[in-house]
Design a protein that fits this description.
By secondary structure, the protein is α/β, with parallel strands linked by helices. The protein is built from 13 helices and 15 strands. It has a seven-stranded mixed beta sheet, with helices on both faces. It has a three-stranded antiparallel beta sheet with strand order 7-6-13, with no helix packed on it. A three-stranded antiparallel beta sheet has the order 12-14-15.
């Protein structure tokens, strides 16, 4: 089979979306909506008095706290802005240093870099492929104020170790949980260990609130009191008990943090209603991806050239994606050779996740090209992902395994 035309849906550079000529595509979203989820949105369209900042927002935030165990939760328009609020609450300023994993989506780093703080890239562990606590502690200096960790691909980071490091050095901790809603360590949900947790409900995630959406969890009562104004243009009510409710105006606008302009990161009521409905099935959906991954991991264990991440005891890894590492050095082949076979002969639209961030022009141009990440450097160039969605048929999973076996056999000649 010749390589099919490399065209995805308009404006999407991720490699997602149906493409003609492939036997197994990489879909643009993880699952279709149920009738209950569709009806939750339609109900808001028909009956809700407010379309934003209303009862469904408050209910979604209440439901999210109940699901995760977070002390405070604030729904926002996307995870990038949840991270932006976290960066704001960390009071970052030029001259500060923030430790950020080099292996993550760019949205993890951009909100922190935009404060003027210096980004220091941290490495991954050699077996779980997420942030390495030992490397993080090694890179702390007198200027470090914040640690950012990412529960990447649904794999939790070792948060007890991270929090102990933060305690010893008096640092704030931000958890990027964009790919890990429902993941946990020893029963405690991610996003509840650090000072802040940032969640995504983008269209590619295990649950999505109509393509965009997010939540910021906050541990401190003092920080939580600042979020509503920062999220919604500094708008708040005037003190209660006015003689005339319209004097001097219907609402006040004020500053929550000195010299800091607020923003509008609000989310719509229909998205919040859908979010509450999705939380009811999130564990069930994650169970499906975990079962799919278990089937693949068992089958791939027979292939010495392929490695998958180790899952430590007590970790609920929810498998936002299924990523592997290929080692064809014994016969002079690499990841690109294997993907040539998979995408061509087998018709499997395998993809490669984002670059280490320090390799991108954006971060290089903004002075964040320096790195000391030997594990990531030695691992990333031979990593790749299978197509992935919730509810993949067993025959599709078996075809992926058979295809990669055939590809490796072909490369060995």
């Amino acid at each position: 089979m010749a390589n099919p035309t490399q065209t995805t849906k308009t404006g999407d550079a991720s490699g997602r979306g149906s493409v003609s000529g492939y036997k197994v595509n990489f879909p643009a979203r993880m699952r279709v909506y149920s009738e209950a989820e569709i009806n939750a949105v339609v109900n808001v369209m028909r009956n809700a008095e407010a379309q934003t900042q209303g009862e469904y927002l408050r209910q979604f935030e209440t439901d999210f706290k109940a699901y995760t165990g977070a002390r405070h939760a604030f729904a926002v328009d996307n995870c990038t802005n949840a991270l932006r609020l976290a960066a704001t609450l960390c009071r970052l300023a030029p001259g500060d240093e923030v430790l950020i994993p080099a292996y993550t989506f760019c949205a993890t780093a951009i909100p922190f870099g935009s404060t003027g703080a210096r980004i220091v890239w941290t490495d991954i562990t050699p077996d779980t492929w997420v942030a390495d606590p030992h490397d993080i502690e090694k890179k702390i200096t007198a200027r470090t104020t914040t640690i950012v960790v990412v529960h990447l691909l649904g794999m939790p980071v070792d948060m007890p170790a991270i929090m102990e490091i933060a305690r010893r050095h008096n640092l704030r901790v931000v958890e990027d949980c964009a790919q890990a809603p429902g993941a946990s360590l020893n029963g405690q949900k991610v996003g509840t260990f650090g000072d802040y947790g940032c969640f995504s409900f983008h269209g590619a995630k295990n649950i999505t609130t109509l393509g965009e959406g997010g939540v910021l969890t906050v541990r401190s009562d003092e920080d939580a009191a600042l979020v509503p104004g920062l999220r919604h243009n500094g708008v708040r009510g005037f003190p209660a008990g006015r003689e005339r409710y319209w004097v001097p105006a219907m609402s006040n606008v004020d500053m929550d943090l000195d010299s800091l302009w607020p923003n509008n990161f609000s989310i719509g009521e229909a998205q919040c209603a859908l979010g509450s409905q999705l939380l009811k099935v999130l564990d069930e959906l994650n169970d499906v991806t975990i079962a799919q991954a278990a089937r693949l991991r068992a089958a791939l264990a027979e292939i010495p050239e392929l490695t998958v991440a180790r899952i430590p005891d007590g970790y609920r890894h929810i498998f936002h994606q299924f990523v592997m590492h290929f080692d064809g050095s014994a016969f002079g082949k690499n990841r690109n050779d294997l993907l040539d076979f998979l995408t061509g002969e087998a018709g499997v639209r395998a993809i490669v996740q984002y670059h280490p961030l320090y390799r991108y022009p954006l971060f290089q141009k903004l002075g964040a090209a320096e790195q000391d990440c030997p594990i990531l450097e030695g691992w990333w160039d031979n990593s790749f992902s299978f197509p992935w969605w919730i509810g993949m048929p067993d025959e599709t999973l078996d075809y992926l395994v058979d295809s990669v076996k055939a590809g490796i056999a072909s490369l060995k000649g």
